[in-house]
Automatic annotation (TrEMBL):
Protein name: 65 kDa heat shock protein
A biological process from GO: protein refolding
Domain of life from the UniProt record: Bacteria
Keyword tags: Chaperone, Stress response
GO molecular function terms attached to this record: ATP binding; ATP-dependent protein folding chaperone
Stored InterPro entries: Cpn60/GroEL (IPR001844), Cpn60/GroEL/TCP-1 (IPR002423), GROEL-like_equatorial_sf (IPR027413), TCP-1-like_intermed_sf (IPR027410)
Family: Belongs to the chaperonin (HSP60) family.
Amino acid sequence: IDLSAPFENLGAQLVKSVAVKTNDIAGDGTTTATLLAQALIRQGLRNVAAGANPIELNKGIAAAAEKAVELLKARATDVSSAKEIANVATVSSRDPEVGELVAGAMEKVGKDGVVTVEESQTID
C-alpha cells in the first residue's frame, strides 16, 4: 500500500504495520487489529483536536493495552491435544477437514515447529 497523499500514506503504513505485527505474533486477528487501530486513530485525532494532550492520550492508550493483554492472558487456555488443536483450527477455518489437517501437521512438527502451506498444482 502506497498512497500519494503523505498524511494518508502515513496512516496506511501505520495500519499496515499493525496488521503485519499482529500476524507475526499471533498468526491471526489482523482484521480485528486493523479495525482497532483505525478506531484508536480516529478517536485519538478527535480528542487531540478537542484539546486533549497527545502525550497523556498515548499514555492512556498504552495503559489500556497493557491491561487488555493482562486480562487476555488470564483468560487464555493452553491447547495441546490433537483434538483441541483440531477444534481451534476448525473454528478458525470454518472447515472440519482443514481443522484435522492442521492438527495432523501440528502433531508431526510439534509446538515450536513450522508448517508451510503451499498451493498445489494438482487436484490431490
